[in-house]
Amino acid sequence: MRFRKFGGAMEKKLLDIWHVVFVVAMLLLAVGVGFGQGIVTGSISGTVVDPQSAVVAGANVRATHVETGRVFSTTSSTAGVVQLPSLPLGTYTVVVEAKGFSTYRADNVRVEVGKDTSLGLMDLRLGSAAETVTVEGGASPLVEATTDQLSETFESKAVESIPLGNTYDSFVLFTPGVATAGSGGFENNNGAEFSINGQRSRSNNFQLDGQNNNDNTIGGPSIFFGNQDVIAELQVVTNFDAEYGRNMGGVVNYITKGGTNAFHGTGFEFWEGDHFDSLQNQEKSPLYGYCAAGQSPSSGCAKPVVPLFVQNQFGGTVGGPIKRDKIWFFGSTNLERIRTSGAPYSSAT
Predict the structure, then answer these.
(1) ∠ at Cα 63 (57, 67), nearest 5°?
(2) Do 234 and 253 touch, CB atoms closer than 8 A?
(3) 82 vs 91: CA distance, rounded Å
(4) Which of 45, 55, 249, 344 is most buried, judging by how many CB atoms fall within 10 Å of its CB?
(5) Three-class SS state of 281
(6) 41-136: what CATH class?
(7) Strand pairing partners for 281?
(8) What is the percent of the chain where pLDDT is above 70?
């Protein structure tokens, strides 16, 4: 009501400003809710100790995301424990500094979605901060020691290299505890219908960048993903913790790539044609008006010809920095063209 004393023009201007503020607030709320629905990050943990294996409290810990330069910081607890949660997937350099000790540095620490990368005991040596002790982070452990969750992760290289076409749900069949649903599957699929730990094939939860990607009417994924160059990780969780919930089976989570501090891009094309196809019986039978062996088309019959079929699937990605260490961009495209002619048919009985 107070807007009225400013007159029509001022009132409209203030109302427009409030509308903008309201829309921005709603968008920020939606983003917060969206990122809270699924698992798109991992974590790093460890324990800081001195040469006598006593815990070191208050040590400064920094984890730098190699691809983007983002820095995540924390301090060790009174028990020397280090927890760095909610880290984007990728490779990290972890640095630990404490007064009276040399700097501890772990390179090539790999973080995967939904997993904790444990560095174990991070041993500090007596010395000055100018001295650095460097260790290699190493590969992810074969046995998950920090959670009872069971999962399998297929990285980008595997997705790009294994010749499964664009049927990426087929990767799930490489996971222990998973079997094809066979004739018992009646839902959407992105290459495979499967049962996880004996549950119904409709009891699986599909996610895309942590957001639910489920067809709630039929079952299976709602959006079919067909661009291998965009997939950073494909994760299959067969025994999941409470944060996933929703379904009794397993979780299939597609994680897409993002921009980095380096400009990068890819391009691809898959071609399939009819050059090596053969004729089906109805495409060469005289019952359908085709010429028999040795018969000339001049007699009124049609010469058998392999039906036209040409499929092109092509696309690419591009990404890079807008402002280094701050803002990045990433985009992709996936296009398909199919040109085909139908096979002959007859309604005669």
Answers:
(1) 175
(2) yes
(3) 18
(4) 249
(5) helix
(6) mainly beta
(7) none
(8) 84
For the chain, the structural domain boundaries read 41-136, 150-256, 264-340
pLDDT of res. 276 = 87
Q: Report the distance separating Cα 212 and Cα 10, nearest Å.
A: 44
Q: In what order do the strands lie in the sheet with 327-340?
A: 264-272, 309-323, 327-340
- Residue pair 133/82 in contact by the 8 Å Cβ criterion: no
Residue 15 CB contacts under 8 Å (≥ 6 apart), including other chains: 3
Q: Which SS3 state, helix, strand or coil, does residue 256 take?
A: strand
Does the pLDDT of residue 349 top 80, yes or no? no
Q: Which of 31-40, 74-83, 289-298 has the lowest mean pLDDT?
A: 31-40
71-75/60-65 β-pairing? antiparallel
Which amino acid appears at position 158 of this protein? A
Helix, strand, coil tally for the chain in percent (to 5): 20, 40, 40
| CATH code for the part of the protein at 150-256 | 2.170.130.10
Task: Enter the tokens of residue 114.
Answer: 């939904």
Q: Which tokens is 239 given?
A: 């025994």
The answer to whether residue 98 scores a pLDDT higher than 50 is yes
Strand (E) or helix (H) holding 21: helix 7-35
Strands (DSSP E) found in 282-326: 309-323
Residue that wins the pLDDT comparison between 271 and 4: 271
The residue behind tokens 């489920």 is 214
Q: What is the DSSP letter of 267?
A: E
Six-digit token string for 72 = 């995540």
Q: 111 falls in which pLDDT band (50, 70, 90)?
A: very high
Asked if residues 274 and 280 have their Cβ atoms less than 8 Å apart, the reply is no
pLDDT tens, position by position, 23-55: 444 444 444 333 344 678 899 999 999 999 999
294: left (phi over 0), alpha (psi -120 to 50) or beta: left
